UniProtKB/TrEMBL annotation:
This is NADH-quinone oxidoreductase subunit I. GO terms for cellular component: plasma membrane. Binds 2 [4Fe-4S] clusters per subunit. The lineage of its organism: Bacteria, Bacillati, Actinomycetota, Actinomycetes, Micromonosporales. The gene is nuoI. The keyword Protein biosynthesis does not apply. Residues 47-76, 95-124 form the 4Fe-4S ferredoxin-type domain. It comes from Paractinoplanes toevensis.
Length: 211
């Protein structure tokens, strides 16, 4: 039955269905023979999460923001004696950093919120286990994934350098460079002394009155 309520030719639907089947059968197959053949994944695929331990300050932001509560962090404080400082400083030392990948839903929030770039996506996906408890990766295992993290994308050539890059460039240019640059800016900026005398400044023409 068509949309207009008319009955179509008998067997038309069957022929249309077989035509779709035939078309699909003759299409080249896109099956990938994994695990015999490695799949070609985009370089920034979300496989597993890696931890760069030396960047982690134990701020706990990732654990607090994780919607699945599958990040477990323990730490203790340590005194660091800084020569010349009035008193010893304290720093957090990471004792435990685990992610339970049996709960993780790969939302990436922990990576986004980390203020110190301690967490990274890697395209590594071959970490299936026969025991679900083995999907709890500790800080050593998370650290091992760092070798598979792709390098960060190149900066936009038209973008402004970051504050850190600008500071590094200033330091590399030497101590006199900043003073010279300031002097150049001062020279290029007109001051009141550069203004012409009052009498030499022409008064603006009054607007023409309508006739
Ligand atoms: S990816 Fe999402 S669910 Fe997984 S650990 Fe990070 S915040 Fe939690
Ligand atoms: S947010 Fe980053 S720095 Fe803070 S605890 Fe998590 S991994 Fe460490």
């Amino acid at each position: 039955m068509t949309d207009d309520g008319e009955r179509g030719a008998p067997g038309k639907g069957l022929v249309q269905g077989l035509a779709v089947t035939l078309k699909t059968m003759t299409k080249p197959s896109t099956t990938q023979q994994y695990p015999d053949v490695e799949p070609e994944l985009p370089p920034r695929s979300r496989g597993v999460i890696a931890l760069l331990e030396e960047n982690c300050t134990v701020c706990m932001l990732c654990a607090r923001e994780c919607p699945d509560w599958c990040i477990y962090i323990d730490s203790h404080k340590e005194e660091v004696v800084v020569p010349g400082a009035a008193r010893a400083r304290q720093r957090n030392v990471l004792d435990r950093f685990d992610i339970d990948f049996s709960l993780c839903m790969y939302c990436g929030i922990c990576i986004e919120v980390c203020p110190f770039d301690a967490l990274h996506w890697t395209p590594e996906f071959e970490y299936a286990e026969t025991d679900v408890l083995d999907l709890l990766h500790d800080k050593n295992r998370l650290g091992e994934w760092m070798r598979t993290v792709p390098p960060p994308p190149a900066h936009d050539v038209l973008g402004e350098p970051s504050k850190e890059e600008a500071t590094a460039a200033r330091k590399a240019a030497g101590p006199g460079a900043a003073t010279a640059a300031k002097a150049d800016v001062r020279r290029a900026t007109p001051t009141t002394a550069d203004r012409p005398p009052r009498e030499a400044r022409s008064k603006p023409e009054p607007p023409e009155q309508p006739q």
